[in-house]
Amino acid sequence: MSLLAPALLALEDIMMGIDIKTTLQILALLFLQLAAGQDELIVSTGKVRGLRLPLPGVSEYVAAFLGIPYAKPQLDQLRFRQPEPAEVWNGIRDATQYSNSYTLYPGFPGAEMWNPNTRISEDCFSTGTASLGVYDGRFLSHSQQVVVVSMNYRVGALGFLSLPESESIKGNAGLFDQESAGAGTVGHHLLSQGSHGLFTRAILQSGSPNAVWAAVEPAQAWNRSLTLAQLLNCPLGPSADEMEACLRAVESEKIVSLQFEVIPDPVIISVPFPPTVDGEFLVDMPSALIQSGHFLKTELLLGLNRDEGTYFLVYGTPGSGIHNQSLISRDQFLAGVCLGLPGSVT
């Protein structure tokens, strides 16, 4: 799920070598083997002070720099638009606390380990994002002697809404935010000419850019966006400016709660607002770009599992489905086990 930067340089070189633009955004949640003088760094937008994180079970530490902004908050007029570079600050910025988590879902009762552990807000464009225990970068950094970077970026309607004939809301804003997010969008960066100078290798795990859920034609993207606007009671005409102003004024939580309603017949893997052809990040559908050879020729690390799709068979078992909570009885559970494991004894 990542794009690999060139050679591992000194931390200062890595920080200063990253040009903050509205393209591939990778500034820093930086974990590095601790050495003297690495608690403070100068980055393109100012100076930051990090902290030392201990490694459980050993008397070693890594240096961490948390919550470094890489773009302006996507609020008000900046909502749905491509990211703009963060503003320069004076003095030393505190980089010892995780930043806000991105607006997505309020939480998953019964699965709290996946819920964000910091404040949820659209003002979240920073690196060094909320780190759940299962994703804590210090262990990978220490064991593999690498720099680990994590960041927030927009997803769903807030990241991929596009409007016909709009110069400011063309879609794919979430792709301009990110460094990576699974094999689908890593593949999109491999297909985007503007991303090619920003990394040298890539890892694709689970998914592909030409999967049926990974991109849609512009007309379909526009129809979904207009449907969402209707659900949010935003005017569709006569002026597109009125609709855009309305969409920017709606609470982000309301957008998130309604975005899946734009798909009339959802299936197991339904992405209501995936990337689309915007003429800038993606100049054509991924399948066409792959067939014509318009992608970065580089070293790739690919992974797959023989039974990766087996998980989704659960939705075909008695009492289970994508439209309900799948609260099943013991008998239904055992019947499902028999279906999934032929010959098993109950």
Total helical elements? 10
Q: Based on helices, strands and strand pairing, what is the structural class?
A: alpha+beta
Q: What is the assembly state of the chains in this entry?
A: single chain
How many β-strands, per DSSP? 11
Low-confidence segments, ≥5 residues, pLDDT <50?
A: 1-37, 121-130
**Biggest sheet: strands, sense, closure?**
3 strands, mixed
What best-fitting shape do the alpha-carbon axes yield? globular
Strand content: 5-15%
> What is the terminal-to-terminal distance?
39 Å
Mean pLDDT: 76
Tell me the count of domains: 3
User: How are helices and strands ordered from N to C?
Assistant: EHEEEEEEEEHHHHEHHHHEH
Main sheet: which strands, in order across? 1-10-11
Measured as a percent range, the helix fraction is 10-25%
Q: Specify Rg, calculated over alpha carbons.
A: 22 Å
What does this structure look like?
The chain is α+β, with helices and mostly antiparallel strands. It folds into three domains: 1-152, no CATH class; 153-308, no CATH class; 315-346, no CATH class. The chain is 24% helix and 12% strand. It has ten helices and eleven strands. The longest helix has 14 residues, at 218-231. The chain is globular. This is Butyrylcholinesterase. It is found in: Secreted. Pfam families: COesterase.
Annotate the secondary structure layout.
Layout: E1 2-4, H1 11-17, E2 30-33, E3 40-43, E4 46-49, E5 51-54, E6 61-65, E7 68-69, E8 92-94, E9 126-127, H2 137-144, H3 156-160, H4 173-177, H5 182-191, E10 201-205, H6 218-231, H7 240-249, H8 252-258, H9 286-291, E11 299-303, H10 330-340
Parallel strand pairs: 4-8, 10-11
Antiparallel strand pairs: 1-10, 2-6, 3-4, 5-6, 7-9
